[in-house]
Amino acid sequence: MSVYTELVGQDAVVEQLRRAAGSGTPAHAWLFTGPPGSGRSNAARAFAAALNCEQPEPAARGCGECRSCRLVAAQSHPSVKLVSTENVTYKIEDVRALITTAQEKPQGARWRVIVVEDADRMTERATNVLLKAIEEPPPHTLWVLCAPSPADVLVTIRSRCRLVSLRIPPTAAVAQLLSTRDGLNEEQAHFAARVSQNHIGVARRLARDPEARRRREQVVTLPLRLTSSSAAIKAAGSLVEMTQADAASTAAARLEAEQASLRRSLGLDAEEKIPPKLRSQFKKLEEENTRRAKRAVADSLDRALIDLTAVFRDVLSLKLGTGAELINEHLREELQRYAESLSAEQTLAGLDAINAARVRITQNVPPLLAMEALMMQFLPGRSRA
């Protein structure tokens, strides 16, 4: 199975990467961009695998079957470093460690490849530390950065990178992948692909997890159920509580597993008191867990806002009479009634309000405050341009 299997609807990108991987002289720095769901991280990992594929024929590299390709897929290839962060931003010491790694020669491979997911989460200071490594890389090292758009990284970085632009795959292509790879029937696959707005990872989760589908339904029907200021405030609180509870539950389970693993590595029994000289290691785990939970809440809220954006896009489509299939086609009757209560200008104002809420979350505005302001805009007669 080719390493490019998940890049559905990205034929031009796949061809670009195939040529580069087989050329023998690929550019030393790459920037993969695309909106959430476009598969930019999958494309970067596939490119890293193809660069070191053991197939002797350049055109066949990226086979997905050789030992090197399998190691990259398992994230255990000694010469391919896949980097991501669960914190709000990358720490500068993490970037310095990557630069040290970049100086090492590849082990039994053509290239040392460093894939940095969410490069837009680097602070300006961290990016400036990375700049010199990208300007003057060792001859055996390739950097692959991933970000939503070129504007999300410093111009000094993107000007030194070969750009690869990905797009959201079509609904039919995502549905076909879910059917052939995950065994969903045609109806399930099409529904999951459509309501996820063609985000493969989200579509898979919605198809498999009834609770995820229930939470999404609660989110997308919020504007349809708001009739008063008190209801708007309550809805905002419920939405934030739901995302915080999910994040806290996941974070607590992960922290418990990490603490148990650390205890085993230090030779401590499960109930044994932690010696004072080892407490700093456990405190570090707790601090990391706090940072992860903060990002998890922000990411979950952002996903909810993306789903709300789909609602207003559907309403606008109904207002303009486009005749296109709705993202929330299963709610067509409810959305039609809601559309009759809004003008096109009010619908656009709703989209603007959602976008403003997404920006506020990234600017560390308290989530509850941002959601309350947004829900108030959804009240009848309040969404005005």
From TrEMBL:
<dbReference type="GO" id="GO:0006261">
    <property type="term" value="P:DNA-templated DNA replication"/>
</dbReference>
<dbReference type="InterPro" id="IPR003593">
    <property type="entry name" value="AAA+_ATPase"/>
</dbReference>
<dbReference type="InterPro" id="IPR050238">
    <property type="entry name" value="DNA_Rep/Repair_Clamp_Loader"/>
</dbReference>
<dbReference type="InterPro" id="IPR004622">
    <property type="entry name" value="DNA_pol_HolB"/>
</dbReference>
<protein>
    <submittedName>
        <fullName>DNA polymerase-3 subunit delta</fullName>
    </submittedName>
</protein>
<dbReference type="GO" id="GO:0008408">
    <property type="term" value="F:3'-5' exonuclease activity"/>
</dbReference>
<feature type="domain" description="AAA+ ATPase">
    <location>
        <begin position="26"/>
        <end position="169"/>
    </location>
</feature>
<dbReference type="Pfam" id="PF13177">
    <property type="entry name" value="DNA_pol3_delta2"/>
</dbReference>
<dbReference type="GO" id="GO:0003887">
    <property type="term" value="F:DNA-directed DNA polymerase activity"/>
</dbReference>
<dbReference type="InterPro" id="IPR027417">
    <property type="entry name" value="P-loop_NTPase"/>
</dbReference>
